[in-house]
Amino acid sequence: MAQSAEEVTAKIKDAFAKTPKPSDDELVGSHEGDPECTEVARAFRAQRWSDLSREMLRDHSQALPLFTPSAFRHYLPAYMMACLGSREEAEVLRDFVIFNLTPPRRSAGWRADFFRARATQFSPEERDAIKCFLELMEERRVIDWKSQGLDPPPSRIKGAIDYWALLQSVTRER
To answer: Quick one: how many helices (H) and strands (E) in the chain?
Structure first.
């Protein structure tokens, strides 16, 4: 059984408490001529992850893939914590967060390189918090299906959990 939402929230807060905030110039990649990147950079400028409201995160639910690796690391805990609230309210955010924490099916190519550049920067404590978050999301998914009297379909979340657990074990071996 996964940890409770309160336990996962506490784990996220502790793990990411000292995560460095990137400079305002390092929030998104080159965004000249890209209005979405420009808007995300403007919205997140001078913001710490712990100060972001759920409303702002919902308004920028699609920002995660636009962030640089350091900005992704910094703002991810806010997104994860927003997913731990009301299930209905957090549904769209949850799907985007899980997608961004799930490795691509192919282990080579630009998508895999992009994912690895983000995933490998997290500290062991941050990785553990991510894994616990994913485990809770998977448990909730299964409960939701079963509450409808249905067997849950195969889940990509399990692949993400396995990835973060493996990354965690590799870190411990070093």
So the answer is: 8, 0
| φ and ψ of 88, to 5 deg | -65, -45
Provide the domain count of the chain. Answer: 1
* 59 φψ region: left (φ > 0), alpha (ψ -120 to 50), beta (else): alpha
8 A C-beta contact, residue 134 and residue 160: yes
The pTM of the whole model exceeds 0.85: yes
Strands in the chain per DSSP E: none
Copy the structure tokens of residue 102.
């799930």
Domain span at residue 73 reads 5-173
- Mean per-residue pLDDT over the chain, rounded: 89
Sign of the alpha-carbon dihedral angle for 28, 26, 54, 165 = positive
Tell which residue, 156, 143, 55, 46, has the closest CA to residue 97. 156
Tell me the pLDDT tens digit for each residue of 87-145.
666 777 888 999 999 999 888 888 989 999 999 999 999 999 999 999 999 999 999 89
Cα 154 from Cα 164, distance rounded (Å): 18
Give me the long-range contacts of 120-123 (CB less than 8 A, separation at least 24): 120/167, 121/69, 121/70, 121/73, 122/73, 123/15, 123/19
